[in-house]
Design goal:
Layout (H helix, E strand, L loop, with lengths): L1 E2 L4 E2 L5 E3 L22 E2 L9 H19 L2 H6 L8 H9 L1 E2 L4 E4 L2 E3 L3 H6 L8 E2 L10 H15 L8 H9 L4 H17 L13 H8 L4 E2 L1 H20 L7 E2 L3 H11 L30 H8 L28 E3 L7 H9 L3 E5 L2 E5 L29 E3 L10 H7 L10 H5 L17 E3 L10 H5 L9 H14 L5 H30 L6
Parallel strand pairs: 4-10, 8-9
Antiparallel strand pairs: 1-2, 3-15, 5-6, 6-7, 11-14, 12-13
Helix pairs in contact: 3-11, 6-7, 7-8, 16-17
Length: 526
C-alpha cells in the first residue's frame, strides 16, 4: 500500500471496499475532451424574495417535525446563497466519466456521493423512496386540496403557480397545516426537485410535501444524487459533441460546486465563513466566490496534493459531526442492530442503481473508497457482484489514512484522456445488480486475503506493514498471517488479527521512537 503523490509503497494489511477486480484485465477509466457550452442551470436554487422570513416563521412552529422527517438541515440550508461559478463546473466536467459517474484525475477517481448529499445537502438517505411515494388514504384529501390551490393560480392571469404567488397565497392562510404543506411544496419545487420552469411550482412535489408534513422520513438524498449524475451525463454529452443547442439542467449543481470547495482547497474562496451555532455546514460558503481562472482550475485539479479525501472527519467549530465519524475503528456484525447513523454510513457504501423520474444511474462507491476512509484497489465489476448477508462490517476511524495498492497505481497510469466511452455509455448508465443480495448493508468491506492463484508478491498480498528488523514478535505474527491466509482465513479472524497487528505495531513504533530519542540525547550508545 502507498501513495501516488510520493510514489512510495510498503506492505501492510489493507481495507478495501467490495467489489475489487480479481485480475488486471479490468480496463481503466477513459475520458473525452470537452468543449464549453451554455446550458441553463435551473436547479441552482437560491432563496426567492421573502423566503428567509418564511423559513424562520415555519421553523419556529414545525422544526420538531422537520427533525423527525430528516429535513431540518436541508431546509435551513435553503436560506443561504451560493454564488454560481461557471468555470468550476466546467473544470469538473472536463474530468467527468459518465460510465462510472466519477471524476477521473491522473491521481485517481473521486465523485459526489450519498455522503455529500447527507453532509452538504442535509438530506436523509433513509426512509421510503420518493420515486414511488405512496399516499395513505387519509392523506389523499390533503393532496387534492393542495392541487386545487395550484390549479387556482394556473387559471389566473400569470397562467402558472409562480413561487412569488404561492408564497403570498400561503403566508395569508390561517390554517397552519395547509401553510406548512404549502411551504414544503415550494421548498421541494425550488431547491430539491425543480420543474423546467424554475419559477413554477410542479405538481409532482405535492404528495412528497404531504408525507413530509406528517414527519415521515423519505430518502431524498438518493434521487437528488441521481439527478446530479444524470445532468452531468447530459452536459458531458453536449460538450463532447460540441452541440450549441440549449439544454435545461435541473440538478442541484450548487452541491457540486460546494463539493469542490470542500475537497479542492486551492480553488475554494480564501476566506471561509465561520459557522454559528446550529448552522448547517453549507453556510460556510454563503455569498463567497472563487476567483481562480479556468486554466488554473484545471491545473489544480491535476495535482494529487490539493485534494482532501475526508474533509468531514476534521473538527470544525460549531459543527456537530455524525456519530459514524469515530476516533477508533468500529466492527459491526448484525445489520439489524444498526442505529440510524450507522445505517446511513452503511448506505453510503452500497453499489446500486439510483433513480429519479426517467433518470437511472450507477452508484459506485468502491471506485472512490478513500472518500470513506478505505484503501483503494482496482474497482471490480458490479454487474455480477453478489454478497452474503450478515457478515462483518467495519467503519474506519477518523485518523486512518487510506492509501492505494501498487497495482491500482500501475493500472491508473493507463488512463486514456483521448479515447472515450461510446455513445451508449454517454446516453445511459449500465444496469447495476440491485438484487436483495447485492444491496446488503453488510459485507461492503473486506480485508485483502491471500489467494493461491494470485501472482503478486506474498507480503504485498497479505498487506503487512514493514517493521524494524529483529523484532521477533512482529515476525511471528507476520508468518502466522501468511500461513493462515493461504488457507483462506475467515474474515472475522483476519480483521481481528489485523487490528491486533496494528496495535502491536503502534506500540513498537512508540518504543522504537523512545529509544531513538534517548540515543540522540546521549543516554544510549552503540
Amino acid at each position: 500500500m502507498g501513495s501516488i503523490k510520493i510514489n512510495s509503497f510498503s506492505p501492510r494489511i489493507a481495507r478495501f471496499l467490495n467489489p475489487v477486480a480479481k485480475t488486471l484485465d479490468q480496463p481503466p477509466p477513459m475520458l473525452k475532451p470537452t468543449d464549453r457550452s451554455n446550458p441553463l442551470f435551473k436547479g441552482w436554487g437560491n432563496p426567492p424574495t421573502q423566503w428567509v422570513e418564511w423559513v424562520n416563521q415555519m421553523a419556529a412552529k414545525h422544526s420538531s417535525i422537520w427533525i423527525k422527517a430528516g429535513i431540518f438541515d436541508s431546509i435551513m440550508s435553503s436560506i443561504y446563497e451560493i454564488t454560481f461559478n461557471h468555470d468550476i463546473i466546467y473544470a469538473l466536467l472536463h474530468f467527468w466519466n459518465p460510465k462510472t459517474n466519477t471524476f477521473v484525475y491522473p491521481w485517481g477517481e473521486a465523485t459526489v456521493t450519498l455522503e455529500d448529499m447527507v453532509i452538504l445537502g442535509g438530506y436523509s438517505v433513509l426512509g421510503d423512496s420518493v420515486s414511488v411515494c405512496v399516499i395513505k388514504a387519509d392523506l389523499n384529501e390533503k393532496v387534492e386540496v393542495m392541487n386545487q390551490f395550484r390549479t387556482e393560480l394556473i387559471r389566473s392571469k400569470s397562467k402558472k403557480a409562480s413561487h412569488f404567488q404561492w408564497i403570498q397565497m400561503f403566508k395569508a392562510k390561517k390554517d397552519e397545516e395547509q401553510e406548512h404543506i404549502g411551504f414544503l411544496s415550494l421548498w421541494l419545487s425550488r431547491f430539491v426537485f425543480p420543474s423546467t420552469d424554475r419559477d413554477a411550482l410542479g405538481k409532482h412535489v405535492i404528495p412528497i410535501a404531504v408525507r413530509l408534513s406528517q414527519g415521515d422520513k423519505l430518502d431524498l438524498a438518493t434521487p437528488i444524487l441521481a439527478s446530479i449524475y444524470g445532468n452531468l451525463r447530459i452536459l458531458k454529452k453536449q460538450s463532447v459533441n460540441s452541440s450549441s443547442s440549449c439544454i435545461n439542467l435541473l440538478g442541484p449543481f450548487r452541491l457540486v460546486q460546494i463539493w469542490a470547495y470542500e475537497r479542492l482547497t486551492d480553488i475554494a474562496p480564501k476566506t471561509v465563513n465561520e459557522l454559528q451555532p446550529n448552522e448547517p455546514r453549507l453556510a460556510r460558503w454563503h455569498g463567497l466566490n472563487s476567483n481562480v481562472s479556468l486554466p488554473n482550475l484545471l491545473s489544480q485539479m491535476n495535482k494529487p496534493d490539493t485534494f482532501i479525501w475526508r474533509p468531514y472527519v476534521v473538527d470544525l467549530k460549531n459543527w456537530l459531526q455524525p456519530l459514524y465519524y469515530q476516533d477508533t475503528d468500529k466492527i459491526l456484525t448484525d445489520s439489524l442492530s444498526l442505529d440510524d447513523d450507522l445505517q446511513t454510513f452503511a448506505r453510503f457504501l452500497k453499489p446500486c442503481e439510483i433513480n429519479w423520474l426517467n433518470c437511472k444511474e450507477k452508484y459506485l462507491p468502491h471506485h472512490v473508497a478513500m472518500q470513506f476512509g478505505y484503501d483503494q484497489d482496482i474497482p471490480g465489476d458490479v454487474s455480477s457482484y453478489k454478497v452474503k448477508k450478515c457478515v462483518n462490517f467495519m467503519i474506519p476511524s477518523r485518523s486512518f489514512q487510506p492509501q492505494v495498492s501498487k497495482r491500482y497505481a500501475d493500472w491508473l497510469k493507463n488512463v486514456d484522456s483521448k479515447d472515450g466511452e461510446n455513445d451508449q455509455d454517454l446516453a445511459s448508465g449500465e444496469k447495476v445488480n440491485d438484487s436483495d443480495e447485492a444491496r446488503s448493508d453488510l459485507e461492503c468491506v473486506h480485508m485483502r486475503k491471500m489467494n493461491a492463484e494470485d501472482k503478486r508478491d506474498e507480503i504485498e498480498m497479505c498487506s503487512l506493514r514493514r517493521m524494524p528488523n529483529g523484532d521477533k514478535e512482529t515476525e511471528n505474527v507476520a508468518k502466522d498471517v501468511s500461513r493462515r491466509s493461504k488457507d483462506c482465513m475467515d474474515i472475522d479472524e483476519l480483521i481481528k488479527l489485523g487490528l491486533e497487528l496494528d496495535a502491536r505495531i503502534s506500540k513498537l513504533e512508540k518504543v522504537f521512537g523512545s529509544l531513538k530519542a534517548k540515543d540522540r540525547n546521549g543516554v544510549m550508545s552503540c
